[in-house]
Amino acid sequence: MMRIEDGSISDTIATLQRRFQHERAELQAVLIASSELPADRPLEERATIERREQAIRDLATQIITLKEHQKKEKNERNEAARDPRHGKNRTR
Q1: What does DSSP assign to residue 84?
Q2: What is the number of other CB atoms lying within 10 angstroms of the CB of residue 59?
Q3: How would you write the pLDDT of the chain (92 residues) with one tens digit per residue?
Q4: Which of 10, 40, 61, 78 sits between 20 and 30 A of 89, alpha carbons compared?
Q5: Where does 6-82 sit in CATH, by number?
């Protein structure tokens, strides 16, 4: 796996969060519009809602995965900076 720099992960997370918010807003608009429809929503309307819900779940999963990866890399860097004999920072 290629190592991703922190800036890249942070930028990617920010982009995914913006997409997440956009998708959520779009879903809310679809739900509001569909609430004005009769109780029997057309299949196309239900499919649109399901696609948007799935997109939101996928984006949330990607954001969580990247944040976990970012935290893991940070912990690994912190561990590497410690002196293995004493558990103290090497800079001391």
Answers
A1: T
A2: 20
A3: 334 555 688 888 899 999 999 999 988 887 777 666 666 667 787 788 888 889 999 999 999 999 999 899 888 888 888 766 656 665 55
A4: 10
A5: 1.10.287
